[in-house]
Amino acid sequence: MERRAFLSAGGVSVLAFAAGCSSIGGDGGSDDSVAVVEEYYRRASASEDSEAFADDVAALAHGASPLSRLAEDVPMAFDSTLRQELADATVAAEDVSTDRIRAISGFLAASLDDAAVESIAAENAVVSAVVADDGAEDGEFEVRWLVATDDGEWRLVWPDEPEGAAATALAAQNFSSKSP
């Protein structure tokens, strides 16, 4: 078991070194909020399939984020991400309000209790990511990611985009798990 932990830590260290920083969280600056989004797309490009990528998503997700559950329950929700490449990422906003966090998506708002929203509101940013995708109308599109610190590390919370396959897939999973 210790060997697995060592190899996992080694893999993360190599990825962070390749990204040019000592950890994904770095020193807590706005560049670090962008780094977690860059790491998400980097890992997607390196993954063989959505199930392998789902493990990476869980490692990058904020503790309050429904992304971890989505990755665990419905890894195929990330199929389209595997063919995407990050073209550019910049901080669009910092320290957004609790109301703005709830407005990111109806699904996210329904997934978070007040304590989780307050946790995310403590230190957060919205990162604008321009993503290249051959399946997109113009070859690329923008995704705005809500990111927040979790134990001093920047983590993904949820994409600010129209309710898409990810939210639909997780909502269907939640519904079916509550049915008799």
Q: Could you write a compact summary of the structure shown?
A:
By secondary structure, the protein is of the alpha+beta class.
Explain this structure to me?
By secondary structure, the protein is α+β, with helices and mostly antiparallel strands. It is 48% helix and 21% strand. It is built from 8 helices and 4 strands, in the order ααααβαααβββα. Helix 2 (30-46) packs antiparallel against helix 3 and helix 3 runs antiparallel to helix 4.
Question: CA-to-CA gap between the ends?
Answer: 37 Å
What's the order of the H and E elements? HHHHEHHHEEEH
Oligomer: single chain
Largest sheet strand order: 1-2-3-4
Averaging pLDDT over every residue, what do you get?
Answer: 80
**Number of helical segments with 4 or more residues:** 8
Principal-axes shape call: globular
Residue share in β-strands:
15-25%
User: How much helix, percentage-wise, in residues?
Assistant: 40-55%
Please tally the β strands and state the result. Answer: 4
Structural class: alpha+beta
Indicate the radius of gyration in whole angstroms: 16 Å
> What does the largest sheet look like?
4 strands, antiparallel
| Low-pLDDT segments | 1-29, 167-180
